[in-house]
Amino acid sequence: ILTVMAAAAGAHHSAAQFDFRNTVLVSGKVVSARLVNPHMRLILEVTDEKRGKRNIEFEGHSRNNMRRQGLLPDMFGVGDKITIRIAPMRDGSDGGYVTARRAAASTTFW
Questions:
Q1: What is the arithmetic mean of pLDDT over 81-103?
Q2: Under 8 Å between Cβ of 14 and 38
Q3: In the chain, alpha helices (H)
Q4: How far is residue 65's CA from residue 40's CA, in Å, rounded to a whole number?
Q5: What does the mean pLDDT of the chain come to?
Q6: Which sign does the torsion angle of CA 86, 56, 31, 37 carry?
Q7: Are 18 and 90 in contact (CB under 8 A)?
Q8: CA distances from 31 to 7, 17, 55, 67, 82 (A)
């Protein structure tokens, strides 16, 4: 039983599904932002020429790690336009792991 539980825990905390070597920028409007443990969840409304408008869910570090990096829950809210740098999904599906973020009026990533 311990072997199975350890394998499941390792799989949950694996970042193998994300391509950290090829980060990309994604811009959109915040639909939902939850800075919680164990992972931050962010849903952006994104529009592109190929697939039109859709909501995409991203994840990131825990609330504790985000706070240490200077990201506070009130730094962006629903409706805000932001750009995020993500490690995209390796399989090409929507989503990814947030590695940095900036507000629409800013040129600086946190």
A1: 90
A2: no
A3: 2-12, 63-68
A4: 10
A5: 80
A6: negative
A7: yes
A8: 34, 24, 8, 21, 11
In contact, 37 and 62? CB cutoff 8 Å: yes
Has residue 51 got a pLDDT over 80? yes
CA-closest candidate to residue 66, choices 30, 105, 38: 38
- C-beta of residue 98 within 8 angstroms of C-beta of residue 76: no
The beta strand positions in the chain, using DSSP E, are 24-34, 40-48, 52-60, 81-88, 96-103
Alpha-carbon gap, residue 104 to 22, rounded angstroms: 22
How many other CB atoms are there within 10 angstroms of residue 44's CB atom? Answer: 23
Partners of 58 in beta bridges: 42
Nearest Cα to 59, choosing from 7, 17, 109, 10?
Answer: 17
Whether 47 has a pLDDT exceeding 50, the answer reads yes
